[in-house]
Amino acid sequence: MTNFDRNKILDSVLDHIGGTPAVRVNNIPKSEGVVCEIVAKCEFFNAGGSVKDRIGKRMILEAEKAGIIKKGDTVIEPTSGNTGIGLALTAAVKGYKAVITLPEKMSQEKVDVLKGLGAEIIRTPTEAAWDSPESHIGVAKRLNAEIKNSWIPDQYANVNNPLAHYEGTAAEIWSQCDGKIDMFVATTGTGGTIAGIAKFLKEKNPNIIIVGVDPNGSILALPESLNPEGIHSYQVEGIGYDFIPKVLDRSNIDRWIKTDDKESFIMARRMIREEGLLCGGSCGAAMVGALKAAKSLKAGQRCVVLLADSIRNYMTKHLNDDWMAANGFSDEATRKVNEDKKL
Ligand code: PMP
């Protein structure tokens, strides 16, 4: 939980990480025939714009406390961008150097924010297998060996990844809902978010249904029969993997839902257009999963869905009509709402 007062002066912008709002999603569930309440945990309001600010801050502060790093050292991390932004933001405030290895697929907006925060960026081929020397993970390992006084936080295995969500995000959700929550839905990348939150919520109430969302092309979902397409590329950023990260404890996840690019981007645009929630592409996937899973809930029950990042990361991607058309993601639903509202 946050232990500072948002209405007073904060010591640094790092105090604006955590304590994000939980906002009722009003229009989309109604038009999709979902009768339960849907609440969005809006992680895009964190200082750096995503849920991963929480782990960027926590991994550095805990390493500092443990004497693993000291001011002036170099933090190196392979990431889809948001963990990099969280780390680079913390590094900028606390006086560390940041080197981020980032697959080519990730947006220019993320690169520009990382550069603005002073990070050095190395792009790696999106198609490289995670354990190959050219992958973002392989390159980070090589740089770690080459750069003196460097350290890899390793979000895939660092306990402070799920712990940031067990102690922070989940406790906030529990308190914001006054303990009344029937279902929780989140997308999975490293899995730290869902694993930490699921552990906390199941300890409070084992009947809460935990739903993981995994894109087609990734193999995180269980049972394995849900992943018949195997490993292939897709456009939604920050979710899915070609290996099972150590921090992704799948034992508390009751159900998995697979999503594809087109439905995710269209839903992300609807979240903006119909709810005013300026969230990113994985949030569209999360909402698609939430709407499917929450069909099993009754009126009066509550489903919380986590929105991981902000549209700021995708201004030239799915926010842009030409990009949507060029990628074959035509957007009938948003067009219809716009037309209806004109009448
Ligand atoms: N959505 C986005 C946009 C992300 O950047 C990430 C982190 N890679 C996630 C979802 C998933 O978070 P986690 O790594 O905690 O599973």
Automatic annotation (TrEMBL):
Its EC number is 4.2.1.22. GO terms for biological process: cysteine biosynthetic process from serine; cysteine biosynthetic process via cystathionine. The chain holds residues 1 to 343 of 480 of the full protein. It catalyses: L-homocysteine + L-serine = L,L-cystathionine + H2O. It comes from the Eukaryota. Its cofactor is pyridoxal 5'-phosphate. GO terms for cellular component: cytoplasm. One of its GO terms (molecular function) is cystathionine beta-synthase activity. This is Cystathionine beta-synthase. Keywords: Amino-acid biosynthesis, CBS domain, Cysteine biosynthesis, Lyase, Pyridoxal phosphate. Belongs to the cysteine synthase/cystathionine beta-synthase family. Pathway: Amino-acid biosynthesis; L-cysteine biosynthesis; L-cysteine from L-homocysteine and L-serine: step 1/2.
